[in-house]
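Ticket closed. Logging final result for Putative sugar kinase YdjH.
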Amino acid sequence: MVQMVKRNDDMDEIEVLCIGAAIVDIPLQPVSKNIFDVDSYPLERIAMTTGGDAINEATIISRLGHRTALMSRVGDDAAGYFILDHCRKENIDMTTVGRRISISIFRA
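Final structure:
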């Protein structure tokens, strides 16, 4: 079952609809050229950022002042909520973002 995110009533008519991937990237720093040659490696920084063509473009277009919406699906998990929070902060309409319990970015 897909649950749709409710529309932000403050949004006017959408100018741009971005369709596609909305994921969470987890960049690690620093990464040495020999990272695959060792069993463990100390990191100084781990972060979470949004990624994927659709959400990246929606973010840029919204920051340029256009009324933007995202059409994608996210998991009903921490990563999905991270993406939805990003969209709220960037004023990206999420009417067509579905949440599915069976979708998760966390895989072993």
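The first helix runs from residue 53 to 63. No further action required.
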